[in-house]
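Morning!

As promised:
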Amino acid sequence: MEIEFLGTASAVPSKQRNHSSISLKAFGEVILFDCGEGTQKQLTYAHISPMKIEKIFITHFHGDHILGLPGLIQSMGFRGREKPLDVYGPKGVNALFNAIQHIGYFVINFPLNFHEILEEGEVIDNEEYIIECAFADHNVPALAYSITEKKKPRFLREKAIELGVPIGPDFGKLHNGESVIVDGQEITPKMVLGPPRKGRKITYSGDTRPNERIVKLAEDSDILIHESTYDSSDCEKAKDHSHSTSKEAANIAKKANVKQLILTHFSTRYTNTLTIEKEASEVFKNSVVAYDFMKIEL
Amino acid sequence: MEIEFLGTASAVPSKQRNHSSISLKAFGEVILFDCGEGTQKQLTYAHISPMKIEKIFITHFHGDHILGLPGLIQSMGFRGREKPLDVYGPKGVNALFNAIQHIGYFVINFPLNFHEILEEGEVIDNEEYIIECAFADHNVPALAYSITEKKKPRFLREKAIELGVPIGPDFGKLHNGESVIVDGQEITPKMVLGPPRKGRKITYSGDTRPNERIVKLAEDSDILIHESTYDSSDCEKAKDHSHSTSKEAANIAKKANVKQLILTHFSTRYTNTLTIEKEASEVFKNSVVAYDFMKIEL
């Protein structure tokens, strides 16, 4: 799994920070979280092919989180994409889809599916991972997302041999959840697999005031990516604009018992992020500040 | 007058080249020609305040020429802009305006006027300059634009003194086109001004096949900015996609008797622009290749 920050600015971009977007390379695909203006160019810098992106999760419909979508979609069409693209977002995603279809002349040859998420909970549950969401607390409908790997239980090789399973393809079948017949007797996966194992988990807040729903969603995450538009000196601004301070983000990380907190979405009012990092680290030790093209291997 | 190239790529951006946009600082304002995705960030790099942009001229509605508009407009609103913004474009500009208004949540507090241009000829004629347009020859409705400075005739100081005009404010009035009364006799501007003078002229083709309408529009320009998506080895592709090669652009420059040709809008298929520049220079000597953030003082 590799997380790469493609944009870490808030509403106004700077030389160093593009608008919000995070890529996740995992499970043989690329998943994007948010897609601010200029994301297609950031992907070029990051050597990530837009053609490998299969799903895009949008947290909310403020320009700094969505305005890269039309260009990315048009660019995929221009390059002759054929495989589907699935875009998920809160209430309003269909209106966005409609607007995107009317921005200039272009041809989309591939299946483009927009999915409106109206409830908290499971969004995707496939063989390899679960994606869940919770309502964030912003000034427009907004979601936070988590992705949790489904890690297979360990295969108890000795146990299988003991039960007479011949070394070979049956081992794979059992590990993949299929029963096999050995000497007329059924051997089920449960008989040769260890206890369930916890997979890797990543949570992304999007834009939000600190809230308990995100604490719950982020519980025991390996990484929590939480917005920190402001430092504590601007805590009133954070309230007024429905954002979080670094301290507030760190408190969420602490309550949710995550392993690492990565702060992002910084206001251009700060010439550096030293105070933001310091304040967060005082509350939650393992806090770091994201920058454009920062990569995290997990 | 200062021209700055904010983006010189064609449909797909590269590390070095952003999508199309050209800024013109002149007459106390900033005018943009096209506004591809990422233009607001390019403006940051170029130290040009979006708040100073008064007019945007769009050549046509392909993504690489327009997808920076929603972000730029939203960003102006976010920064509390009050003065109007005027956006000009060919048939379809009102549909674009409608789509832009429905891309996510945002507030526009300033007058935002979209102007649909349905005929060739004069678009703006004010005290300082004339902007004209001609139909380009692309695969969607497209316009080329020219801007011509209105240069005041020279003030014939000796003639004014000879006619008895007292040295002082009356000189300014006459130079600005007002008559004055000297010893009961009317002195008109015509009596103290030299012959009309040619102001500076810049023409921008947008995306187009080479055509005579642009030759006419560009006649005697100081600078012709012409697209050159391809070099001559790809002349069939240029025809197929309604673009121009470097040689074709240079031929337009020659026919239009311009002083300088600046080529832009390059396909990412070329690792460098040496062939493009060489081919153009063989046809029209004063040809140069634009790059992002190239500035031309005029």
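Chain B touches chain A through 36 residues (CB under 8 Å).

Hope this helps with the figure draft.
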